[in-house]
Amino acid sequence: MAVSKGNLTAISSISNNYVEVIRIAAVVEAELTTTTNMEELMKKKKEIEDEISEYGEILEQQGGVGMTEALVDKEGYPRADIDLYSVRSSRQKIICLQNDHKAVMKEIEEELHRIHAKAREEKGARYKKRTPALRFQLQFSSLFKIDRVDHGSPAFTASLRVGDQVLRFGSISRTNFKTLQDVAKVVQHSIDKSISVTVLRDGKEQRLTLVPQKWSGQGFLGCNIVPL
């Protein structure tokens, strides 16, 4: 039986939608798996720590012998003031549990590395999806522009460049920016302190760290800013 062009288009659309659903389901499943794995590891860690604490209480009840106190008296005879079997058994249990604790902590560390790596990948993917329209929106959100950077100045050290459009300067953003005097106030209150500066350069955001301070030139920044 022949399949019409319209039916082929419909089938293709359904197939594409199905593939997208499968992709989303896989992403959700991966996220749930990561969350579940971490929850299980943290639960296991807590259970081990509780057991160690319980056996530690037993040792404390036996005159506080701990893990290293001698189990014989000065004459070399087994101590009669403690339950030797209970102490030896508790010590052995604690040693085994401590090894289990090290193993689960290593698993937790590896899981955290996976979570952070995934977060970095997702952040990179979101950045790549930025459209020209979004880049234009970022440009429209700029506060001011750098039109001069003096060599050897704090601005030069912070890697600011002529043409950079500043999107955020410390606590100043488009939502609360009024005049360039706002920038001067932030600088005055941040002498010898780090200021996070986000700039738009070649259509991409870059985050820099600027430290206003005295230097051989004028001012505390060594750059000139102009409104947009």
From TrEMBL:
<protein>
    <recommendedName>
        <fullName>26S proteasome non-ATPase regulatory subunit 9</fullName>
    </recommendedName>
</protein>
<dbReference type="Pfam" id="PF13180">
    <property type="entry name" value="PDZ_2"/>
</dbReference>
<dbReference type="InterPro" id="IPR040815">
    <property type="entry name" value="Nas2_N"/>
</dbReference>
<comment type="similarity">
    <text>Belongs to the proteasome subunit p27 family.</text>
</comment>
<dbReference type="InterPro" id="IPR035269">
    <property type="entry name" value="PSMD9"/>
</dbReference>
<dbReference type="GO" id="GO:0005634">
    <property type="term" value="C:nucleus"/>
</dbReference>
<feature type="domain" description="PDZ">
    <location>
        <begin position="132"/>
        <end position="203"/>
    </location>
</feature>
<dbReference type="InterPro" id="IPR036034">
    <property type="entry name" value="PDZ_sf"/>
</dbReference>
<keyword id="KW-0143">Chaperone</keyword>
<dbReference type="GO" id="GO:0070682">
    <property type="term" value="P:proteasome regulatory particle assembly"/>
</dbReference>
<dbReference type="InterPro" id="IPR001478">
    <property type="entry name" value="PDZ"/>
</dbReference>
<dbReference type="Pfam" id="PF18265">
    <property type="entry name" value="Nas2_N"/>
</dbReference>
<dbReference type="GO" id="GO:0005737">
    <property type="term" value="C:cytoplasm"/>
</dbReference>
